[in-house]
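Crash report, auto-generated. Payload:
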Amino acid sequence: MAVEKVVGIETEYGIAGGPDLDPITSSSIIVNAYARQGRTRINWDFHGETPDLDARGLPGLTSFAPVVETHLANTVLTNGARLYVDHAHPEYSSPECRTPREATLYDVAGEEVMRRALTVANESLEPHQAITLYKNNSDGKGNSYGTHENYLLSRSTDFAHVIRAMVPHFVSRQVVLGAGKVGAETEHGMESRPFFQLSQRAEFFEEIVGLETTLKRPIINTRDEPHSDAERFRRLHVIIGDANMSQYATFVKLGSTALLLALLEERGPDVFPSPPRHPVRAVRAYALDTSLEVTELCDDDKQRTAWDLQDELWTLALGFVDSNGGAAVGDPAEVSMILDQWREMLDGVRYDPDSVADRVDWVAKLRIVRGYRDRHELNDDDVKLQAIDLQYHDIRPQRSLAQRVGLRALVDDDQVREAVHNPPRDTRAFFRGQCVARYPDQIAAANWDSVVFDLGDGPLQRVPMMDPLRGTAALTEDLLKVCPTADDLLEALDR
Amino acid sequence: MTERERIQKQRTERAKETTQDVSVDATKGDQLKAELDDLLDEIDEVLEENAEEFVRNYVQKGGE
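Recovered output after restart:
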């Protein structure tokens, strides 16, 4: 049985400017500016974080286990999200969501959180020190930072099966989900001298499977940190996605991946198309090919384009939904919308790109980059084209190019304003966000799987939330409403 | 073949046909070009004044 696909998405934003041009200082200013608004000053609790555990159960596979930083600005929001400084970037990690559409809403709410933080931060800075933020994944000079997705799986799902089933999707989904990039920036990428690539991230991947996220990035990340009951759950941490400006792209990214994972849990890995024999080479070669015609030899000796793989995966997902319904991912209307949009985007990129320029980021970006080059008769490597690429991802409305290319909105502004402050109702994020909103002075810290209370007259009290599907509005809203203080809440929970 | 597959196949076939139509459909082509022209005018207005400096100064530390 497929576990209900709790999903989340986290984005490290690119950052420039600031008083001393140091990105760590500037990132702290951003996070603290938002916390200063009075919404929340609650610290993140690192209890239970194990980013160096490997899902394959093989310790010490890499020499550089990820390090958890504990000294940087780090806070929990009333919508259940985490806003913090990760390395040298401000990062927004969405709350756990019950469906891809909801997770898209909370990703867009994250953009709004960053925009508000930026406005508050810049009010306290001189104009020449102003900070700017970019929802992208590379600086064009060989440095990349991530947009990671998270999906709940059953612990009984064999990790080797995840690898077998999901590599074809992760190397090929960029044909509809890539955010596009002008030029190349890694040694091997620059050898091909591309004018444009489908993906921001593809050229940074060097391994098929591994624990790393910053060095030797793997297509499948094996971090085994479930942030929940490890006897029952896994959390698949996907590091190979681009940060999408298109809400429809985010929706199809989360939706297609969640459907294929549910399918894997129901049917096993053998029904999936064969992966390319050399997945790292494939993900890079596919990215370099905007004609979508490049093929890679797969394990069954067939040649496939990225589009062919997506076409097969879509058909597989369709068959699964027809027989199973896909309830682990969403209600019938949402599941149907995932399939329809995924299909339209696939057909669009192949047969009529203009028809999907309102949904596929790389198509939208390529259109303006190419148009601008031709109008001003610029060389392919003109720096203005790289400026357009960066500015596509600028989150300031007055500078954002993504806001000007006519991308279709999936969620409306009222929903986003709500989601900035209020948590999803159908996961434990509801309990976390509500506690932060109701008892801010009585919470010492919080993290994904617990809230720690400080009632002032005894030891700290941890309330565990080991099941992401509990702590929902249905289970806790009535209780929270009749508990004016955290003392009342803890007393009621003890009963 | 399920109902949805059938519809999808028709849609795909249609998409192929439309692609061929587009090349001879001057009206749609002109409209797209006009939209792009307006967009490019707007980009000229909002693009960072000193593109070279802007791009050069945008240096990030790796993350994740």
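Post-recovery validation: Chain A has two domains: 7-415, 425-494.
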